[in-house]
Amino acid sequence: MNNRVLTEWLGKLKDVCYDIDDELDDFAFKQLRMQVLIRGSVAGKIRARLNEIAAAKDQFHLKERAGEWHGLHMNRETYSFVQLSDVIGRDNDKEHIIIHLLKDTDHADQNVSVISIAGLGGLGKTTLAKLVYNDSAVVRNFDLRMWVCVSYDFDNKSLEPMGISITKWIELKALLNIGARGSKIIVTTRNMSVVSLLGSVDYQHPLEGLSHEDCMSLFVERAFRKEEEKNFPHLMEVANNIVKKCGGVPLAVTILGGMLYLKKGTTDYEFDSVEIITMWMAQGFLHSSTRNEQDFEEIGLDYMRQLCSRSFFHIEEDDFFCMRFKMHDLIHDLAILVAQVEYLSVNFHQSGSFDRVRHLSIYTKDLSDNEEVPDFILQLGKVRTILIPEEKVGITGRSFIKKCISRFKYLRLLNLRSSTFDELPSSIGNLSHLRYVDLSYNCHIKRVPDCICKLQHLQTLLLSHCEELEKFPKDIGNLISLRYLALTTKKTCLPTGIDRLTSLRILHVVACRNLLSLEGLPRLTHLKMFIIEECPVLRSLPHNMKYSTALETLIISDCEKLDLLSLEECVRGLRSFWILKSKLKNFPLWLKECASTLQNICIANCQNLIALPEWLQSFKLLEKLVIENCPQVPALPEGMHCLTTLRELKISGCPRLMERCNRHGGIDWFKIAHVTKIMIGGVNNNTFGGL
Predict the structure, then answer these.
(1) DSSP H stretches of helix in 310-396
(2) DSSP 397-446
(3) What angle (nearest 5°) sits at the alpha carbon of residue 544, between those of residues 540 and 546?
(4) What is the number of other CB atoms lying within 10 angstroms of the CB of residue 120?
(5) In Å, what is the CA distance from 583 to each residue of 130, 531, 607?
(6) Smallest Cα–Cα separation from 216: which of 240, 185, 241, 187?
(7) Band of the pLDDT at 675, cuts 50, 70, 90?
């Protein structure tokens, strides 16, 4: 934003909104009514700040309107400048328009005549008008030139969404007709109704799509640096197929070319959607007017997919229940720019004002040897996030944690991953706003204090790979808002009270070397994702798992003694089923009960698996199938071609199966030829030439 004063004003408004949110959160935690806020002394101070901010609003001439998002148009403010080197393939169109622009008209009663440029959205009508407007011949022949952008709310009558009115046009043209004889108006529109209401138009120029050659030149310019395309011949083949599908529309070519550039330039760090969504949830970023809080995880995934569709992120893997994605370095830089007032990455050589800092990232290498908290950090009274981004080295002592907990009473997200302190301070129970705690990969901590059960807002508690952890809070069932629990325990059974976590949506049980039983879990009727990893002596799933009616994702990995075949009934509504590092010889029969719901199957490192079941063809909604390192699987089921919804198939580490599924002469190729995305041994075997 160019107006620094307005930016500062908006920053103050946002800051006081954060404070209001914190105060409301306090009252929600205490289960008091909102009316108490109006009477409180803190509310009086906030009201005074709001009044001061409101008084300053008039200087910006801002318009107030209701936030009816579905009815709003994003007004497009155009300008006359154009970079000639960015325009490809419009020379002939420009010359045709200029010929008519400079030609004398025969209208004796009209000083002003009209030229229209009409065509589909994205063809480049405005760009063409800019080329004409800035052409040297036009500049020489017209003493005065003016560029006008008409917004969508130009008029409220007749063709309202486009702001078109015959009366309006007649009135406007009458005013313009006082101009010098030979004056011209160029109008660009995608709506032929606009052309017809203009009446007498001196020349109509129907804009067509670009040629394939011009589109390829434009695509290469957007997707590659100078002559870089020579290093990516395989991408040029992909580019050719993409451009063919763009129908000559330069906007589509430009966007897709930019997406390919983003794909080449993504950073190495791979994000996990579950982690990001739970962080969003902790900050209160997930909202919906049509869904209740039971769907926060789905709302977050919808947000993520929308951001990916707009090229903010590049999807590396989409497994329905979660996504892995990367961020382009330009988007990363933009995020840093936008967040610079509220976000602070600590290097302990800071200066300046930190009044509005809400999110704090700390690198342990920048801490002093005794991990003393610098004074300027202790001045950050409004911090909501403390993040230790390093994966291998965390906080070693309690002193740092204790000071942060005592100082930051509005803390919502506390990430202390890979720390090595042996006990969490009991004062953590005073952080009534806390929603996210990550203590995973702490190899020293032995107990979680009982006071953590006071955190009624806590939504995410991550205790995975805390291999010395043996004592859990006795009242863990009181965490009534907990939605995601990951844990490691030395015990033979799960913590008492876990079955009372009725809000739990995700349960991740990992590296439990002594765990024998999972009984009690079916009472978790809202559980949607259940992950069991590295539990070597666990022998069976709960016998009454059929009552876990909300469960959609079941992932089992490296549980060598787990018997999946003995269960007569299991879950019926699964959408995703993964089995990894298993001695399984055949698919469990109870999986057939999910034939009407299952969309995603992953079978990996199952050395003893001898075949895929023939009843696999009954999974009519199956969209993704992954088979990796299952060397004894000889072939695909005969009815594989019946899986008409299957859009992604990956096979690797299965020699016989890979040979039969080879696109060039494989015996089983006809069974999968309809699948859009096929990877055999890491090689793209796509049948439709897509990305």
Answers:
(1) 329-339, 375-378
(2) SHHHHHHHHHH-TT--EEE-TT---SS--GGGGG-TT--EEE-TT-SS--
(3) 110
(4) 14
(5) 67, 18, 7
(6) 240
(7) very high
In sequence order, the 6+-apart residues with CB closer than 8 A to the CB of 74 are none
pLDDT tens, position by position, 554-597: 999 999 999 998 877 778 899 999 999 999 999 999 999 999 99
Segment 443-501, tens digit of pLDDT? 999 999 999 999 999 999 999 999 999 899 988 998 999 999 999 999 999 998 898 89
Q: What is the DSSP letter of 104?
A: P
- Residue 190, φ and ψ in degrees, nearest 5: -95, -5
Mark out the alpha helices in 521-587 (DSSP H runs). none
In whole angstroms, give the CA distance from residue 327 to residue 271: 8
Q: Do 126 and 58 touch, CB atoms closer than 8 A? A: no
**How many beta carbons lie within 10 A of that of residue 574, not counting itself?**
22
> How far apart are the C-alpha atoms of 624 and 634, rounded to whole Å?
20
Q: Which amino acid appears at position 160 of this protein?
A: E
508 forms bridges with which residues in the sheet?
486, 531
- How many CB atoms within 10 Å of residue 679? 15
Q: In whole angstroms, give the CA distance from residue 671 to residue 202.
A: 60
Q: Is the pLDDT of residue 348 over 50?
A: no
Residue-level length of the chain? 691
Closest CA relative to residue 385, chosen from 351, 357, 350: 357
Cα–Cα distance for residue pair 600/290, rounded to 1 Å: 27
- Burial of residue 663 (number of CB atoms within 10 Å: 0-12, 13-18, 19+): middle
